[in-house]
Amino acid sequence: MAPTAAARTVIENVAIATVDAHDTEYASGHVVVAGNRIESLGSGRAPEGLTDVVRRIDGTGHLVTPGLVNTHHHFYQWITRGLATDHNLFNWLVALYPTWARIDEQMARTAAQGSLAMMARGGVTTAMDHHYVYPQGAGDLSGAIIGAAAETGVRFTLARGSMDRSQKDGGLPPDFAVETLEGALAGTEETVDRYHDASFDAMTQVAVAPCSPFSVSTELMRQGAELARRKGLRLHTHGSETVEEEQFCKELFGMGPTDYFESTGWLGSDVWMAHCVHMNDADIAAFARTGTGVAHCPSSNARLAAGIARVPDMLGAGVPVGLGVDGTASNESGELHTELRNALLINRLGTHREAALNARQALRLGTYGGAQVLGRAAEIGSLEPGKLADLVLWKMDTLAHASISDPVTALVFGAAAPVALSLVNGLTVVEDSHLTTVDEDAIARATRVEAQRLARIAAQD
User: Fold this and answer.
1) I need a labelling partner for 101 at 20 to 30 A (CA). Which of 36, 81, 164, 243 fits?
2) pLDDT single digits (tens) 21-71
3) Dihedral, CA atoms, 251, 257, 260, 264, nearest 10 degrees?
4) pTM for the whole thing?
5) Are 392 and 64 in contact (CB under 8 A)?
């Protein structure tokens, strides 16, 4: 529940990066939050005579930005971190699918709690989870994940995933870890009907998200797209992550991934794809023409040696691009600030690429760009009057940043900045670098227990 409409929080004497359409910034300004909306912001002190001010914050030495928006993740992997650390994607999947196939409802909830807590304490105010492993008899995995997000207090999109191509069909997952076509579609629609909220300030939304071309049938892709559009939902999947995927699509479907996606109804302004590392000029043009979005996951792509996505070219063509943590079994840090920095640095690799991305473009990827690909740019992703009060106050006057005069440069190029305050829907989720909604130490203990339990069960197979 949001604060009453009249309750106001005022932040003054603070540097502001709005990430609006003009990249408006204020070296010293104010932000006024009323209820769950941004009421006003600008240079100098807040307006005089404000009533019902419940909190005034002196933001000297701080930077306020929109909250970070994570556009791709796999929460369940929190309890399988640090495994298969020297594998490429396909070998990594082969190594870990037998373990992932043994997750149950308690494991999913605990893993989601750990993933969400790590992101939230690092400035994420909107998260998403692409959960696609639904083993038979595992319990209510979607409900467990959504419940964890509600406890943490972040805005959340569950990309309800699915797989129907198992080992017997030439896929990678064990047979008992996939659903039938009918079961996947029914389970997805049930999740949508139960949890999706289409309202402006929704805390929970659901997207339709078959896993990837090599783990789902063409019919699941087609009917999944039809279901999403019948319900007015967004669509999400993995795309063009590795060269092996491109070879797989050409061998099985007679075309590359982008053409395959288009043939199944999976290009459009309501679609976003994770990774998109191996995209040629024609692929990028197709995404730009259709408004298809991209979740860029630089740390995971580097960890699995997948390659470097052509993010500057995508942005230049007008493709919507956000950032993703990706699963914590391929990005063990589990937080999004790392992705601001790594997106900038990785996309500069190569000769004369020193201007490929800059600090403000990286911040935009992690905020407004993420809001775009989640279909929520009218509500979040920038600091503007009338938008939802999802914002982060970063402490920039510590040893780590004190000698960098530009706060946005300090935030992106520097070490992870402490989160002095994080508001989601006008409510405090983080204060002084600590979560206010959940017990971090209890979650840490629980994740150790569930990780050990999962390892024991998998070892018995």
Assistant:
1) 243
2) 999 999 999 999 999 999 999 999 999 999 999 999 999 999 999 999 999
3) 130
4) 0.97
5) yes
Backbone angles phi, psi at 131, to 5 degrees: -105, 120
301-316 CB burial, b ≥16 within 10 A, e <16: bbbbebebbbbbebbe
In this predicted model, what pLDDT tens digit does every residue of 61-117 receive, in sequence order? Answer: 999 999 999 999 999 999 999 999 999 998 999 899 999 999 999 999 999 999 999
Of residues 393, 386, 373, the one with CA closest to residue 126: 373
Are the beta carbons of 213 and 248 closer than 8 angstroms? yes
Taking only the tens place, the pLDDT of each residue in 219-253 is 999 999 999 999 999 999 999 999 988 888 999 99
State what percent of residues in the chain have pLDDT above 70.
Answer: 99
**Is the pLDDT score of 1 beyond 50?**
no
Q: Which residues lie closer than 8 Å to 325 by C-beta, 6 or more apart? A: 70, 72, 73, 119, 297, 299, 300, 331, 333, 334, 335, 336, 339
HEC assignment per residue over the chain? CCCCCCCEEEEEEEEEECCCCCCCEEEEEEEEEECCEEEEEEECCCCCCCCCEEEEEECCCEEEEECEEECCCCHHHHHHCCCCCCCCHHHHHHHHHHHHCCCCHHHHHHHHHHHHHHHHCCCEEEEEEEECCCCCCCCCHHHHHHHHHHHHCCEEEEEEEECCCCHHHCCCCCHHHCCCHHHHHHHHHHHHHHHCCCCCCCCEEEEEEECCCCCCCHHHHHHHHHHHHHHCCCEEEEECCCHHHHHHHHHHHCCCHHHHHHHCCCCCCCEEEEECCCCCHHHHHHHHHHCCEEEECHHHHHHCCCCCCCHHHHHHHCCCEEECCCCCCCCCCCCCHHHHHHHHHHCCCCCCCCCCCCHHHHHHHHHHHHHHHCCCCCCCCCCCCCCECCEEEEECCCCCCCCCCCHHHHHHHCCCCCEEEEEECCEEEEECCEECCCCHHHHHHHHHHHHHHHHHHHHHC
What is the CB neighbour count within 10 angstroms for residue 414?
18
Q: How many CB atoms lie within 10 A of CB 216?
A: 26
Q: Any bridge partners for residue 37, and if so which?
A: 34, 388
In the numeric block, which tokens belong to residue 110? 């605990």
Mean pLDDT across the chain: 96
**Cα diameter, the chain:** 70
For the stretch 406-434, pLDDT in tens is 999 999 999 999 999 999 999 999 999 99
